[in-house]
């Protein structure tokens, strides 16, 4: 009798073991969580951490959805039926596509990730970082004698006084966008855990020399906290032209034979042009003072001529006109602007920096004194506002 009970116990354990799933079941949120728990339980501690990191990378950057529940549903569709190695491989692809400094074979780097944690109420939200703005630090590197080959871009969250904000245990989605003359060249994404974030390592060889027309780039970094998305743009960042990605030479078919051409004997021969007298086209230079552009912008905001104000800008961080003119979070909330002082901080034919001091009164009657640095760049001979930083 004891032997029978023993064999029944062994059979029951075997049955329970066989019921554990080795692939994702996304038929419901509950089955998704249950199947992932089953898959995780078969891994060692290190593998569990990397598997959870991979799931977080896929949920954050691999799907397009708003809200945690919708993100989980989209993630379920993406990984339904897949096993652990397939999920790790897919996360590697997503990380590489977004230029993330993460691989499934590297040591753990994102901490304890739980894609289902956001569904449960928390006493403390680790992503509710009380920061006012982002400071950008740039460091060139890789100089082997012919100039730097890369630049490290480090965002730091700061308070209203410009002091670094201390936080830890966060998972802040951080995005780097690289532009030239308003055209986006590349995008990279990563996760900021604390204010010791190493940022982004931008290799100049990843940028095409054909698209960087003036040896400079503009960068915008955005950091998404629970309360808001903080953005900062830096314009006119120098790049090393010799380190840029050069276009591949055209392929020549060695078999093809080009037929010789002969001049039309009926056409009189003219005097050939002297190549030395041909002058290359030069970029159109702005004739207006950059201060005038800022002053006009502020006057248009004050009079709520927001379309004219928006047309005077080329600032990626302001987004669309709807976002720019939003009556709650945009310049549509402004009732009046009283300018105190405007001065040009620096200027060259391609970029300028203008400081402005003014009072802003919103539609509720509240007045705020601001000191703002406007970055401007030359766009086809006109000054366009390309960055906007409120100073302490």
UniProtKB/TrEMBL annotation:
Highest taxon, organism lineage: Bacteria
Region (Disordered): 261-290
Sequence ranges of Low complexity compositional bias: 266-290
Protein name in the entry: NTF2-like N-terminal transpeptidase
Organism annotation: Chryseobacterium caseinilyticum
Lineage of the organism: Bacteria, Pseudomonadati, Bacteroidota, Flavobacteriia, Flavobacteriales
């Amino acid at each position: 009798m004891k032997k029978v009970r023993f064999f029944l116990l062994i059979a029951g354990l075997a049955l329970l073991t066989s019921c554990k799933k080795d692939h994702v079941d996304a038929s419901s949120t509950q089955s998704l969580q249950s199947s992932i728990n089953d898959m995780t339980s078969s891994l060692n501690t290190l593998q569990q951490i990397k598997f959870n990191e991979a799931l977080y990378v896929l949920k954050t950057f691999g799907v397009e959805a708003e809200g945690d529940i919708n993100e989980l549903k989209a993630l379920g569709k993406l990984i339904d039926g897949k096993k652990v190695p397939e999920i790790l491989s897919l996360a590697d692809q997503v990380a590489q596509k977004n230029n993330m400094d993460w691989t499934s074979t590297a040591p753990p780097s994102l901490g304890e990730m739980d894609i289902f944690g956001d569904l449960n109420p928390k006493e403390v939200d680790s992503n509710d970082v009380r920061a006012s703005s982002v400071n950008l630090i740039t460091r060139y590197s890789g100089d082997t004698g012919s100039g730097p080959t890369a630049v490290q871009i480090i965002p730091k969250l700061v308070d209203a006084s410009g002091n670094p904000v201390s936080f830890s245990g966060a998972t802040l989605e951080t995005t780097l966008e690289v532009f030239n003359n308003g055209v986006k060249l590349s995008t990279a994404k990563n996760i900021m855990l604390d204010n010791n974030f190493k940022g982004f390592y931008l290799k100049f060889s990843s940028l095409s020399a054909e698209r960087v027309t003036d040896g400079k780039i503009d960068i915008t970094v955005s950091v998404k906290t629970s309360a808001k998305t903080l953005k900062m743009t830096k314009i006119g960042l120098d790049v090393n032209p010799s380190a840029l990605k050069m276009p591949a030479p055209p392929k020549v078919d060695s078999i093809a034979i080009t037929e010789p051409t002969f001049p039309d004997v009926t056409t009189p021969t003219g005097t050939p042009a002297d190549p030395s007298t041909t002058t290359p086209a030069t970029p159109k230079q702005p004739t207006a003072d950059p201060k005038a552009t800022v002053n006009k912008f502020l006057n248009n905001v004050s009079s709520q001529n927001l379309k004219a104000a928006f047309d005077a800008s080329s600032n990626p961080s302001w987004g669309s006109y709807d976002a720019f003119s939003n009556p709650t979070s945009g310049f549509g909330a402004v009732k009046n602007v009283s300018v105190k002082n405007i001065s040009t901080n620096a200027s060259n034919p391609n970029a300028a920096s203008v400081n402005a001091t003014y009072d802003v009164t919103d539609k509720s009657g509240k007045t705020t004194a601001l000191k703002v640095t406007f970055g401007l760049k030359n766009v086809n001979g006109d000054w366009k506002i390309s960055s906007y930083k409120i100073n302490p």
